[in-house]
Design brief:
Length: 331
């Protein structure tokens, strides 16, 4: 379409009145102006929708569109609703409590050449005290989609949607797994990598990712079942040959990593919510030796951590709590 924007930016919102204006402002401040911003209010119970409408009215920017969902459908559901409305050549995602740096779109659009389908960059992690640290994927440079898929399975590509820009046609016939509230970014990235021709990744930080104990990622006691929908969706859509053979050990390592992340999230809550212990014990029981052996070959540090979680959970918890305090400013 002649009037289609270069990039469709999708911003899900739920009870984001305190931060959504900042997030929208970071999009409107982009040095690349050829975009549409699709803000989806997921039936917020605060005044998020009023804040968004006020920003649209004050800026009179016709590139900003609001979809106001009548019922709450969750993060995957709102992203899928926006994908149906998106018309850009490329798609980017921004959470309503984070922000793009001004060069975000310029960098990614330049990186997405004729054969490149996904562009990845770094970001700043902003701790609750306001201090920030740059972070980026270990996978840097260019690779095939299958090379990127394997790297993502091994956690060498960070498992987010908001530090990447995708060719929109990668989503043809694929959507975020609805009902899933954890790991849907990780699994959709693996699936999209498998469909990509070329993936490029740079270390330059182009987002600010704000750590908040109230967010979906950090704010609730997880359960192992939180991962089931996302993993089932990946299993259904990823061809069998990409889960076996030379990909079998990375695929097992990905499942091991997800189980450890759930345990780590529960550990963060254990001091104030003892019921988190049930999640930790469930994760320990569900780590099969076959996953640990597979990880020992392709990602030995994960195998060692998983073994520690299984046989010495208190030691694992102490080490992880020190890591989270140092990296994220959370205790």
């Amino acid at each position: 379409m002649a009037n289609s924007p270069r990039v469709s930016i999708i911003m899900p919102c739920f009870n984001a009145a305190a931060t959504v204006e900042r997030a929208i402002g970071s999009v409107l401040s982009q040095s690349c102006t050829d975009f549409e911003l699709i803000v989806v209010n997921d039936a917020s119970t605060d005044n998020t929708v009023d804040v968004v409408k006020a920003v649209i009215s004050a800026t009179a920017d016709t590139r900003v569109h609001l979809i106001d969902m009548p019922v709450n459908v969750g993060p995957s559901g709102v992203r899928n609703e926006a994908l149906r409305a998106a018309s850009g050549t490329f798609v980017a995602f921004l959470d309503s409590d984070d922000e793009f740096l001004p060069a975000f779109l310029d960098h990614h659009v330049a990186a997405l050449g004729d054969e490149v389908d996904i562009s990845i960059a770094g970001h700043f992690v902003v701790r609750p005290d306001g201090s920030e640290t740059p972070r980026h994927s270990q996978f840097l440079g260019q690779g095939t989609g299958l090379e990127a898929m394997r790297a993502a399975m091994l956690d060498n590509i960070l498992p987010f949607a908001w530090d990447k820009v995708y060719r929109r046609t990668l989503f043809d016939g694929v959507r975020f797994p609805e009902g899933s509230t954890r790991f849907e970014d990780m699994t959709i990235n693996i699936l999209l990598d498998s469909r990509a021709r070329t993936v490029t990744s740079a270390a330059v930080p182009l987002n600010r990712y704000y750590i908040s104990s109230e967010s979906l990622t950090w704010g609730k006691i997880p359960a192992r079942s939180d991962s089931d929908l996302a993993l089932a969706d990946l299993h259904a859509h990823l061809p069998e040959e990409l889960r076996k053979g030379r990909f079998a050990k990375p695929y097992a390592t990905m499942r091991l990593l997800i189980t450890m992340i759930i345990a780590q999230s529960a550990i963060m809550k254990l001091a104030h919510q003892p019921e988190a212990r049930a999640t930790i014990d469930d994760c320990r029981r569900s780590l099969p030796l076959s996953w640990i052996v597979a990880a020992a070959i392709v990602k030995p540090q994960f195998a060692a951590a998983a073994l520690m979680l299984k046989v010495a959970p208190n030691t694992f918890a102490k080490i992880y709590l020190r890591h989270s305090a140092s990296s994220y400013g959370l205790d």
